[in-house]
């Protein structure tokens, strides 16, 4: 048994129910994945955790390639695991990615996953799927540069502005192919995921809604410190880029991920 019984010194959220374990109260901590629980919530934690890896943790912040595996498709395990969890039990939730998860839990889980490096603790014990969505968005927002990169940012905006659909599609495909491999593969993986979310009638998150949520996250700005004016001007154009990317055929995105996307799902 890898459980450790301890007394809480600073209040922390329970990894199962999400409510705070208050100062001085008893808690159970897993020696392997460091998950902290109320003693009464221990029975509900059915998901097997993964032992902490021997290698070093991921950086607190970096570009996407810093988190990607060494063999293709180059999609970070954190992204794969969050997406898998959302698709397993979140496609019936209204407002997926729009409804915020508890901020404290999002921060806690993001930190836990980053600290774990490649061998991630299971997300099955996160009761609220919106927290998992929050972790994914927070990870993408916290990168040193957006997924479309600073250097290709203007090209993405220009391509999305082309009024003719066919010409716009051709231009976007060309810009996507110029992305660093990890950024390109991860963008492809996320686009296929967001298309599945948009097709779920329960989620009520169509392409327009999803592009509003993910525009700032995926497209961002052309520099790390945009002016307030640039932020204001960029926002509608960011959404347009994501909406246009989501209009590209799924087969285009699948082409970057190899024959079967299933090989991305962690066992």
Automatic annotation (TrEMBL):
This is RGAP1 protein. Gene3D superfamilies: 3.30.60.20, Rho GTPase activation protein. Residues 1-49 form the Phorbol-ester/DAG-type domain. It comes from the Eukaryota. It comes from Bucorvus abyssinicus. Keywords: Metal-binding, Zinc. PROSITE patterns: RHOGAP (PS50238), ZF_DAG_PE_2 (PS50081). Pfam families: RhoGAP (PF00620). PANTHER family: RAC GTPASE-ACTIVATING PROTEIN 1 (PTHR46199). One of its GO terms (molecular function) is metal ion binding. Residues 62-253 form the Rho-GAP domain. The keyword Zinc applies. GO terms for cellular component: centralspindlin complex; cleavage furrow; midbody; nucleus; spindle midzone. GO terms for biological process: mitotic cytokinesis; mitotic spindle midzone assembly; Rho protein signal transduction. The gene is Racgap1_0.
